[in-house]
Design goal:
By secondary structure, the chain is of the alpha/beta class. It has 14 helices and 17 strands. Bound molecules: 4'-deoxy-4'-aminopyridoxal-5'-phosphate (PMP).
Length: 411
């Protein structure tokens, strides 16, 4: 079970109670990490400690529990600021996740600043949550959505991107890493080129946060979106990073408590950022537990995590390539540890089910990237995505399972 990397896999696995179970009579092998990854004990403990010890609403209370909860909640904001190297702590807004973060920007920034004939650029490998919010706002504002083409192996076509950019471009929204293909996009270049035409750039960091170093100041992105549940944290929480100067000129997204300074029936004045964008009681427990997830990643170190995951990806590519009729989908040079594939003559769902019977959890389907699947001329893929607790012997079992499935279906 142990691998040759510097991290102690057994020690890490011991922190994840969910991994130590049988599924369909077999030891669970969890390779659906790009959908959501598993939670270490310290994240689970942070949730129960909050509910058992200091559950209280935050910011408005002056009693001890409320103060303790507020402090813990705001501590996550501080940790997240450091995690992505934001200049100001008020640039971190808590949301439900990447989907809500993108919708917030599309609705608030888009509604305020897009005009008829303006253009929004996305890429051909975006998740539906980085497509549909832009379609909605483009339709409302009579703006046009443009798409950067993607190559057969899964790279963004930078030359075509250059051609799409013009003074009409107001927003560019692309992912840092693709959930279907694993491609790591050249976002620094994409941002720099967009800024040359004064467009703002939103980066969907859903697939990056657990694997790649994120430095929003160095990237110079205008918005960056993260989901906690893809970085060992709880579901239902994430962040939107936005540059202070931009967030300050954006109108509120939702109205309610917390986002106001003063309310009269005649007029309401809004709170300062980040609270202007945090209407209502937030997801306190999950925000607090997200801090434990950040600490988990920081303690391991992103370099160590990436080294281990890259080793697994390389190993998986080698093993999967040896399986007859299997075609790898997404073979760009720069990738996070996600490998999609198809097997000639066998539907991805059937493979998914047969692997599940062996205790192996993979994702099958279009992965919320239907336009990308159409571009590649396929209905969907089987996707194995790796996390820090996965091992080479698990990859062996996946390859072994696939080999048997291919042989059974042949017979
Ligand atoms: N973008 C990408 C690249 C994703 O992988 C996902 C999650 N599958 C999302 C956006 C949406 O994230 P969430 O569902 O956490 O809002």
């Amino acid at each position: 079970m142990t691998t040759a990397t510097a991290i102690d896999i057994e020690k890490i696995r011991a922190k994840f109670p969910i991994l130590h179970q049988n599924v369909n009579g077999k030891r669970l092998i969890y390779f659906d990490n790009a959908a959501t990854n598993q939670k270490p004990q310290e994240v689970i403990d942070a949730l129960t400690n909050y509910y058992q010890g200091y559950n209280a609403n935050i910011h408005r209370g002056i009693h001890t529990l409320a103060e303790k909860a507020t402090k813990a909640f705001e501590k996550t904001r501080d940790s997240m600021q450091k995690f992505i190297n934001a200049k100001h702590v008020e640039e971190i807004i808590f949301t439900r996740g990447v989907t809500e973060s993108i919708n917030l920007v599309a609705s608030s920034y888009g509604r305020a600043f897009l005009k008829e004939g303006d253009e929004v650029i996305i890429s051909g490998m975006e998740h539906h949550s980085n497509i549909v919010p832009w379609q909605l706002i483009c339709e409302e504002k009579k703006a046009n959505l443009k798409v950067i083409p993607v190559s057969e192996i899964g790279d963004i076509d930078l030359e075509e991107y250059r051609k799409l950019l013009s003074r009409k471009t107001k927003i560019v929204a692309v992912n840092h890493a693709s959930n279907s293909l694993g491609t790591i996009n050249p976002i620094k270049k994409i941002i720099q080129l967009a800024h040359e035409v004064d467009a703002v750039v939103l980066i969907d960091g859903a697939q990056a946060a657990a694997h790649l170093d994120i430095d929003v100041q160095n990237l110079d992105c205008d918005f960056y979106c993260i989901s906690s549940h893809k970085m060992y944290g709880p579901t239902g929480v994430g962040i939107l990073y936005g540059k202070k100067s931009i967030l300050e000129k954006m109108p509120p997204y939702m109205g309610g408590g917390e986002m106001i300074k003063e309310v009269t029936f005649a007029k309401t004045t809004y709170n300062d950022i980040p609270y202007k964008f945090e209407a209502g009681t937030p997801n306190i427990s999950d925000v607090i537990a997200l801090n434990a997830a950040i600490l988990f990643i920081n303690n391991l170190g992103k370099d160590q995590i990436a080294e281990h995951e890259n080793e697994l990806l390389e190993y998986a590519v080698e093993k999967l390539s040896a399986i007859p009729k299997l075609k790898l989908i997404g073979t760009a040079k720069n990738k996070v540890a996600v490998q999609s594939f198809i097997v000639d003559g066998i539907h991805p769902f059937d493979i998914g089910q047969m692997l599940d019977a062996r205790g192996i959890a993979v994702r099958t389907g279009h992965h919320c990237t239907q336009p990308l699947m159409e571009r590649l001329g396929i209905e969907g893929t089987i996707r194995a995505s790796f996390s820090v607790y996965n091992t080479k012997s698990e990859v062996d079992e996946l390859a072994d399972g696939l080999m048997r499935i291919v042989n059974i279906m042949k017979g």
